[in-house]
């Protein structure tokens, strides 16, 4: 399969994805049965994973979304990342951050720090995919679907240059 200049091959099929998502939902249903968690999917990449996961949550829960947007800052040297959607409604809540993929962990570290500063009661992370050896930050991801090598993946919400989010399966760049 070709997306722009890159060739991709099938990596994780639909049934494997659904099996992993079901397992993650079951763990959360068990661990949070006395609580009312707030799911916090990080847009854009986690929208399909979050929908499939949350459909299988059988305890009372809430859902709120966060978008990480980058913009050129006033400081000439770099880009600042800002988070849209983090607000006071998260105070004293048991938050479950929903990520499509954790790579270096930088994005997640910023999100978790910001959530703690809002006075959340607890923060855990559920990630469909994790690139284990690319990890730079020691972020604790409590619920992980798949540990993968350091390869670029698309599909099931993940994109290459905006394309491929609609694919039902996960593909990796062919080399
Ligand atoms: P860090 O390094 O901060 O990166 O953990 C996490 C974010 O980077 C994106 N990302 C990917 N997106 N295929 C993608 O489509 C990939 O293989 C990939 N690796 C990282 C993603 O947005 C994630 O939230
Ligand atoms: Mg993402």
From TrEMBL:
GO biological process terms held by the UniProt record: GMP salvage; guanine salvage; hypoxanthine metabolic process; IMP salvage; purine ribonucleoside salvage
Subcellular location: Cytoplasm
The keyword Isomerase is annotated on this UniProt entry: no
Enzymatic class: transferase
Primary site of residence: cytoplasm
Pathway(s) where this gene product acts: Purine metabolism; IMP biosynthesis via salvage pathway; IMP from hypoxanthine: step 1/1
Catalytic activities: GMP + diphosphate = guanine + 5-phospho-alpha-D-ribose 1-diphosphate; IMP + diphosphate = hypoxanthine + 5-phospho-alpha-D-ribose 1-diphosphate
GO molecular function term, any single one: magnesium ion binding
Cofactor(s) of this protein: Mg(2+)
GO cellular component terms, semicolon-separated: cytosol
Domain Phosphoribosyltransferase: 16-160
EC number in record: 2.4.2.8
Metal-binding in keyword set: yes
Swiss-Prot/TrEMBL keywords: Cytoplasm, Glycosyltransferase, Magnesium, Metal-binding, Nucleotide-binding, Purine salvage, Transferase
Sections of the chain in a coiled coil: none
CDD domains per record: PRTases_typeI
Family note: Belongs to the purine/pyrimidine phosphoribosyltransferase family.
Protein name: Hypoxanthine phosphoribosyltransferase
Origin species: Dawidia soli
